[in-house]
């Protein structure tokens, strides 16, 4: 196995991606913002087994951050990530600079309005426009056969699937399960922002979603009742938390549902100290 390539230039990345595809190789892509944890690594290991050439990208994409968000403080350790990438068998680590991805005067955007009115799209209005645009650019630069994304960012995955389908992008989009800490907290690069006290409370985010699932299994179908119970649970168990949203939505359309009558997605975003944490749970209801 030859040494891992580190590529900064978008043009070099595209030349390599095109050459690999021209040789009939299967190219897998795992796009990330870096500061990797097991969630990222699980995507890379999964992709490694399914492609000939594996590309991981690290790019803290400025256009998906809103004013006052953590763009400038986003955690980073490229040297550590680079060692992890080598261990995972990454062939090329793509780490473009901001100004090479967005040239002066950049003015072309991809938007997926139907899927982004709710959940994170409501509290971060420009976020998915930045995400869809950068993922489109990464697809064009890397030329992947498939790209792997985590279900932790369920709405993001839905947006990317729709964009890929409706713009006829020749890329398979693969969603992979949420990787959690032993106590149930969904892994996130932003968990590093938590103080020890906040970290101790954070597993209750998932526990609230499990409570909600338990209520559904016990027959409760009224989403207002379900939401209230979890809101109360959070108020008691994460007293310093600030709930951004707790919603029950259709997993495909991301539209709010009033009654839990078929498959639903329970999704939460909660601010805890300096971190804004998200989590979700898909609940399949037998008819
Ligand atoms: P990020 O670096 O946060 O942009 O994440 C890069 C990719 O890793 C995205 O597809 C995320 O959905 C995925 N990811 C982040 N955290 C997790 C996790 N805990 N489990 C599975 N995938 C994750």
Question: In angstroms, what separates the terminal alpha carbons?
Answer: 51 Å
CATH architectural arrangement of the largest domain: 3-Layer(aba) Sandwich
Number of strands: 9
Q: Number of domains in the coordinates? A: 2
Q: Tell me, what's the shape?
A: globular
Unreliable stretches covering 5 or more consecutive residues:
none
What about the largest sheet? 6 strands, parallel
Give the overall pLDDT as a whole number. Answer: 97
Query: Structural class of the helix and strand makeup?
Result: alpha/beta
Widest β-sheet, arrangement of strands = 1-4-3-2-5-6
Describe the structure.
With 287 residues, the protein is an alpha/beta fold. The chain has two domains: 5-176, HUPs (Rossmann fold, 3-Layer(aba) Sandwich); 189-282, 2-Layer Sandwich (Pantoate--beta-alanine Ligase, Chain: A,domain 2), CATH 3.30.1300. 37% of the residues lie in helices and 19% in strands. It contains ten helices and nine strands. It has helices at residues 10-22, 38-48, 78-87, 98-101, 119-123, 127-142, 154-166, 196-201, 204-217, 223-237, and strands at residues 5-7, 27-32, 53-58, 92-94, 146-150, 172-176, 242-249, 264-272, 275-283. It has a six-stranded parallel β-sheet, with helices on both faces. A three-stranded antiparallel β-sheet has the order 7-8-9. A hairpin with a 2-residue loop joins β8 (264-272) and β9 (275-283). α6 crosses α7 and α9 (204-217) runs antiparallel to α10 (223-237). The longest helix is centred in the middle third of the chain and has 16 residues, at 127-142. It starts with a strand and ends with a strand. The model has no long low-confidence stretch (mean pLDDT 97). It binds adenosine monophosphate (AMP). Adenosine monophosphate is lined by residues 32-33, 39-40, 43, 149-150, 152-153, 176, 178-179, 186-189.
